[in-house]
Amino acid sequence: xxxxxxxxxxxxxxxxxxxxxxxxxxxxxxxxxxxxxxxxxxxxxxxxxxxxxxxxxxxxxxxxxxxxxxxxxxxxxxxxxxxxxxxxxxxxxxxxxxxxxxxxxxxxxxxxxxxxxxxxxxxxxxxxxxxxxxxxxxxxxxxxxxxxxxxxxxxxxxxxxxxxxxxxxxxxxxxxxxxxxxxxxxxxxxxxxxxxxxxxxxxxxxxxxxxxxxxxxxxxxxxxxxxxxxxxxxxxxxxxxxxxxxxxxxxxxxxxxxxxxxxxxxxxxxxxxxxxxxxxxxxxxxxxxxxxxxxxxxxxxxxxxxxxxxxxxxxxxxxxxxxxxxxxxxxxxxxxxxxxxxxxxxxxxxxxxxxxxxxxxxxxxxxxxxxxxxxxxxxxxxxxxxxxxxxxxxxx
Length: 396
Ligand code: PMP
Prior knowledge:
By secondary structure, the chain is α/β, with parallel strands linked by helices. The chain contains 15 helices and 13 strands. Helix 8 (191-204) links the parallel strand 7 and strand 8 (207-212).
């Protein structure tokens, strides 16, 4: 059965990690993966998570199966975060939310549901996008194409072209949109541009699928979530995947969710029943621990306040690193307008460096970024930023 199996291509970013681990350079810096590190270059354990963990471990419970759609208190807390506590759409019972295995799991459960409902639909992702978007929707059986997004010339968004592509898409087309902190470019739409995107989705009869992997890393929890309110206000039906990997620094616990906004309570009940079939036939039901941690933090006022503060701390540290990078690049002699670095949102920056320059950064300076030019600003710190800026200046 396996004799003819071909070797699959390596995941480019995980392959980079292996290369990094094998590099003997003591000054090496890994800016490849999308992970937030603190100023000591360590993966943080949030204090609110540690407190919730202690609480849970002190009251050890039997490890039964969770319901197929996960912990009810968790799903409710996710809804509050994404749609606003007590919002009309929640009160009307128009949102089906299921716990999922990270943001990736939320996307896949949503993709599988959509494939069942409309097998002929096409999927549009941004050009460029998080690499797994294409692979995930292709594997779910969809034909995946792109809509224009990044403009290398202006280091901004090709907004008119994006809008035209959405308007020209066939009714029923699934459009994957980054709710905030676009991965890999760091370029986000303005609220006014979102208004036009919502209208285009509505006019063309598209199915928006919002990927929210970085809520709180852009401008703030509410600010980054505001786009959801715009979609709700339009009356459209749409999907939202949520990831807590970054915002709770819970990468390996696989904590995420999928929310589906429906027309009414009855439709929501029917959609939820189908979501449960997708989950049941894939992995039966989700794991307990990570979602318990997140639910505990989100529903305990003191821990919730602590989380918001810690998340703000991560957001502000990234911003400080962006500002410092601009300053240090300029000081190291990099000419031109570098303000795009501070304009970009979230963990990533599209540096504009070519694949060749990125390779030189690795081989000559031990600075590891993705060949697309993407660097993870959240992996910069006060100890490595000088070396990174000097290295970039040498290859720029
Ligand atoms: N969507 C985007 C845009 C991402 O960047 C990521 C994480 N790199 C995910 C989804 C997946 O998140 P998770 O690790 O929670 O599955």
